[in-house]
Design a protein that fits this description.
about 260 residues, MetI-like fold
């Protein structure tokens, strides 16, 4: 019930945008009236729609692949085998220490320059997903590691007394408590991911912000970028709400 006023206020503000922009002279002259201004807004949203779905697809596949991959990287980072640990540390340092845009360029153009594999439009999508997944897996791995290390040692000892195996200890005791610890930083990373999808333009992946820039250039008007910003903001509100609900459900581990 508390969320309804927030949603209503947002929708009301969205409806006021054409009138406000028209009064400020930001909507093209042909769309200066209130009705025309609203039609202009609907036209911009319609043209952004394909980019919105492209951004959502990139976001969804990145989450699907990077979060479990991050857990595997976390296990390797904590491995008792020194070689595995060092390789994983190097991977994480590269992913966290170089720009995501550069990583996308390497993933996309690397196969062509190294193996002479032809570039295709389909591979552009795959390269964007691979680049984002590899990058965010490194961040998630470090978040997971901090969450695991935050679990008190006494929990492991209690599990050993109960006769739990290592797998049972992790799944029934460590993992639920780790999730509770990592939800806030994971939420921050997911919010960052929503905005970072705009970096896919580096390999000419056509997502929402790329289309907004094209519309802004074609109309000599910055307002399409403003509309795109509203969608990023709304999407992050949804992410924050969902992750907040998950965090509340995990709070029972504190008692």
């Amino acid at each position: 019930m508390k969320k309804k006023p927030i949603i209503a206020m947002f929708l009301f503000g969205l409806l006021l945008i054409p009138a406000v922009l028209a009064s400020c002279g930001k909507i093209p002259a042909a769309s200066s009236s209130g009705g025309e201004g609203f039609n202009w807004l609907l036209n911009v949203i319609s043209q952004l729609s394909s980019g919105i779905w492209a951004s959502l697809m990139l976001f969804a596949f990145t989450i699907i692949f990077s979060m479990p991959l991050g857990l595997l990287v976390c296990f390797a980072r904590r491995s008792r085998f020194k070689v595995v640990e060092l390789i994983t540390k190097f991977y994480i340092s590269i992913m966290r220490g170089t720009p995501l845009m550069l990583q996308l360029i390497v993933v996309y153009y690397g196969p062509y320059y190294v193996f002479k594999i032809p570039l295709t439009p389909q591979y552009r999508t795959y390269a964007a997903i691979i680049g984002f997944a590899l990058n965010y897996a490194a961040y998630f791995a470090e978040i997971y590691r901090s969450g695991i290390e935050a679990v008190p040692k006494g929990q492991y000892e209690a599990a050993k007394v109960l006769g739990y195996t290592r797998a049972q200890t992790f799944m029934k005791i460590v993992f639920p408590q780790m999730v509770r610890h990592v939800i806030p930083p994971v939420t921050n990373e997911i919010i960052t991911l929503v905005k970072d999808t705009s970096l896919a333009f580096a390999i000419t992946y056509i997502e929402m912000f790329t289309i907004a820039k094209q519309l802004a250039a074609a109309q000599s008007n910055i307002m399409p970028l403003f509309v795109a910003g509203i969608f990023y903001y709304l999407f992050n509100l949804i992410v924050s709400f969902v992750m907040g609900r998950i965090e509340k459900k995990m709070n029972y581990y504190t008692h």
